[in-house]
Amino acid sequence: MKTILLAIGKTTDKNIQTLVSDYAQRINHYSGFDIQCLPELRNTKSLSEQQQKLMEAMLLKGFFQSGDYIVLLDEHGRQRTSSQFATWLEKRINASPRRLIFIIGGPYGFAPEIHQMANEEISLSPMTFSHQMIRLIFTEQLYRAHTILKGQPYHHE
């Protein structure tokens, strides 16, 4: 199984890029992990929020494959502790989907059809973070989950 973090747009902050890359390398010691960035929409000033979400949905749908397990990182999703997320991840791994895809949407969230296509929605916090920060927070939590599952001393409760 391959785990993918799929995001709209690239991270422009070099410090965040460095940290995300570090966690991505650490995660790859446990399981296949990749970060994929879809191109950010251009010339959006004349588009409504709904139009932008629909255009992003077309980009996202073009990435999906049969057998993918799709998880939206969305503020309205279910919140878990780090240990609960690790248990959840273990169940997903044992279910053996072809690809486990976590998605960070655009600035206005996801179109309704993407919500319908998703298997689950997870919230990383009731607070709002920039899309760039979410990449870092998520990759750290995915790394933490793997260390919890392996009984390694990274996580403390």
Sum this structure up briefly.
With 157 residues, the chain is α/β, with parallel strands linked by helices.
Please outline the helices and strands.
Layout: E1 2-8, H1 14-27, E2 32-38, H2 49-61, E3 68-79, H3 82-95, E4 99-104, H4 112-117, E5 120-123, H5 131-149
Parallel strand pairs: 1-2, 1-4, 3-4, 3-5
Helix pairs in contact: 1-5, 3-5
Keywords, separated by commas or semicolons:
157 residues, alpha/beta, Alpha/beta knot, 5-stranded parallel beta sheet, 5 strands
Question: What this model shows, in words?
Answer:
It is a single chain. The protein is globular. It is α/β, with parallel strands linked by helices. It has five helices and five strands; from the N terminus they run E-H-E-H-E-H-E-H-E-H. The chain has a five-stranded parallel β-sheet. The protein has one domain: Alpha/beta knot.
Mean pLDDT: 93
Q: Can you tell me the CATH class?
A: Alpha Beta
Biggest sheet layout:
5 strands, parallel
Give helix and strand order, one letter per element, not per position: EHEHEHEHEH
Distance between the termini: 29 Å
Computed structural class: alpha/beta
The CATH architecture name reads 3-Layer(aba) Sandwich
* Fold-level CATH name: Alpha/beta knot
| DSSP helical segment count | 5
For this structure, what is the CATH homologous superfamily? SPOUT methyltransferase, trefoil knot domain
Measured by DSSP, the beta-strand proportion falls in 15-25%
Q: Helical content, roughly?
A: 40-55%
